[in-house]
């Protein structure tokens, strides 16, 4: 196996350019649509990377083609150089004899020997030798057109940097590292989406719970506000009633004269106490305690005293 003599460093890995990758892939897909697969029969042909093109059948995306050997070619020079490495310097007539044997399968019938060349399909799905589509490094550096041939006077060496084919450019762009980087990005997006979905579901559930809790809290607030309102009402009523009684406490006459009023005072006082103890006013109304407060107005408390009104006056 001949060792590679090109010591140029490989292009540095760059960040993913999704727009460039998409453009290259679309151009390649236009030439070679559908899945790509390896086919061939080594009994009579070289293996090739292929695809199925409608109305054309199997097309070689990346394959080989035979080309006639040429006297003025790299291969011819390498052939003679190999002979001289083995046998030493050859005379010109000997070189010519060996060269003609190398060039022709049958010189009389002009049947040339051929070599296999790497090919890519073009927009017409015709195989094109990759060698004819190369972009020389010197051409890029000197601002020459990408299709400048090797025999141009400005191309002093044969190093290449690109191939003028969407198929070839796509194959170079879709390296294993690039595919792995795309997979990593997709999986990252999937993980973020899964996390966001889980979080959203939790937030929705929390919102539902909070919504129910808020409704309950709102109802309790309304009940509390209603209780405060009722307590305020009965307290004001109690104050009005007490204003008509001597601050020294009611006498027996006051008790008789204001019995109904005291019944109301007792009821109002009980209602206030019930509200302050957390009992809803509606629950107090009609309760056994309310009946007791009405039937026994002497239970009403004045100035914090726990004694019945009648006993406090004696």
Find the structural class using helix and strand composition.
alpha+beta
What is the general shape?
Answer: rod-shaped
Oligomer: single chain
> Which runs of at least 5 residues are low in confidence (pLDDT < 50)?
298-314
Quick check: average pLDDT?
79
List SSEs in N-to-C order. Answer: HEEEHHEEEEEHEHHHHHHH
Task: Kindly provide the radius of gyration, computed on alpha-carbon positions and rounded to a whole number of angstroms.
Answer: 52 Å
Largest sheet: 5 strands, antiparallel
Q: Note the total helix count.
A: 11
Termini separation: 132 Å
Kindly report the spatial arrangement of strands forming the biggest sheet: 1-2-3-6-7
Q: What percent strand?
A: 5-15%
Please estimate the helix content: 40-55%
Number of strands: 9
Describe the protein in words.
This protein has 314 residues and is an alpha+beta fold. The protein has helices at residues 18-31, 74-87, 92-103, 137-142, 166-173, 176-243, 252-257, 259-276, 281-284, 288-295, 309-312; strands spanning 37-39, 48-53, 57-68, 104-106, 111-112, 114-121, 127-129, 134-136, 160-163. Residues 298-314 have low confidence and may be disordered. Helix 1 packs across helix 5 (166-173) and helix 8 (259-276) runs antiparallel to helix 10. Strands 1-2-3-6-7 form a five-stranded antiparallel beta sheet, with no helix packed on it. A two-stranded antiparallel sheet has the order 4-5. The protein has eleven helices and nine strands. The protein has a domain at 217-312. Helices cover 52% and strands 14% of the residues. Keywords: Plasmid.
């Amino acid at each position: 196996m001949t060792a590679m003599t090109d010591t140029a460093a490989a292009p540095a890995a760059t960040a993913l350019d999704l727009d460039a990758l998409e453009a290259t892939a679309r151009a390649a897909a236009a030439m070679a649509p559908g899945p790509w697969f390896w086919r061939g029969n080594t009994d009579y042909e070289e293996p090739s990377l292929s695809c199925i093109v409608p109305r054309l059948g199997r097309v070689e995306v990346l394959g080989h083609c035979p080309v006639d050997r040429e006297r003025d070619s790299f291969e011819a020079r390498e052939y003679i150089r190999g002979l001289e490495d083995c046998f030493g310097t050859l005379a010109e007539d000997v070189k010519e004899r060996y060269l003609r044997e190398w060039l022709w399968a049958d010189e009389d019938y002009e049947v040339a020997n051929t070599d296999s060349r790497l090919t890519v399909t073009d927009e017409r799905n015709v195989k094109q030798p990759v060698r004819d589509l190369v972009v020389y490094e010197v051409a890029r550096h000197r601002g020459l057109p990408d299709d400048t041939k090797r025999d141009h006077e400005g191309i002093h060496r044969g190093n290449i940097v690109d191939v003028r084919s969407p198929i070839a450019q796509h194959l170079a762009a879709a390296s294993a590292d690039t595919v792995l980087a795309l997979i990593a990005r997709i999986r990252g997006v999937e993980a973020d989406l899964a996390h966001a979905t889980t979080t959203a579901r939790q937030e929705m559930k929390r919102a539902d719970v909070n919504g129910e809790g808020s409704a309950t809290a709102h109802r309790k607030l309304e009940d509390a506000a209603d209780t405060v309102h009722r307590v305020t009402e009965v307290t004001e009523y109690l104050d009005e009633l007490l204003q008509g009684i001597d601050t020294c406490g009611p006498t027996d006459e006051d008790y008789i004269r204001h019995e109904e009023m005291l019944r109301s005072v007792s009821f109002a006082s009980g209602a206030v106490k019930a509200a302050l103890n957390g009992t809803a006013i509606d629950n107090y109304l009609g309760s056994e305690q309310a009946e007791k407060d009405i039937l026994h107005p002497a239970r009403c408390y004045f100035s914090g005293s726990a004694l019945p009104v009648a006993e406090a006056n004696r």
